[in-house]
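User: Predict structure, ligand pyridoxal-5'-phosphate.
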Amino acid sequence: MSIAENISQIKSELPADVTLVAVSKTKPNNLLLEAYQAGQRDFGENYVQELADKHEQLPKDIRWHFIGHLQSNKVKYIAPFVHLIHGVDSINLLKEINKQALKNNRTIDCLLQIYIAQEETKFGLSFEEADAILNSADFQELKNISIKGFMGMASNTNNLRQIKKEFQSLNEFKYKHPELKILSIGMSSDYKLAIENGSTMIRVGSSIFGERNYSL
Ligand SMILES: *Cc1c(COP(=O)(O)O)cnc(C)c1O
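Assistant: Predicted complex:
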């Protein structure tokens, strides 16, 4: 199937209030343009340099989502244009995003990344850590960021019951923060399950663009 067909297939399965972010990391501009011509406007990338280059080269009405792990010293490269930063996992990173947003005279929308998988990973906050940030005086002072919700990645497993449990736990946590509307969960392998469990934003790469080839 073509990229356009993949997108319309996925969109036909989405409730109206769920946003499809097309994850285009490692993919060349011509494939992103194919998606763009099919009406896709939200794109996700997880390397800063690649995102900055693509932003420069592609149509200006694209909404760029940063979905990878963001290092503080690289925030400045995406601060002028980024639409939503999904993977925020520390107050220090929030402070740097706030600083760069201020420099660019804008407010940057962010999601707190919550660690829900069973695997060991360096990234993501526990529910307690996320609450501690949201309730901290440091955070209240940051006027140029806006936390819009939460992002999570389920365990890399075929066990659907496990994945469902992880999505549910994050959805329940989100319900305790009714002012935060976005729940970014679901990728190619599990977005249907994510939608059944409260997702408002899915991040889909290979089901749109095909498998990634990291050796390129
Ligand atoms: C690559 C990536 C995706 C998309 O993965 P697919 O399995 O190709 O759909 C989603 N979220 C994050 C954070 C990613 O890094």
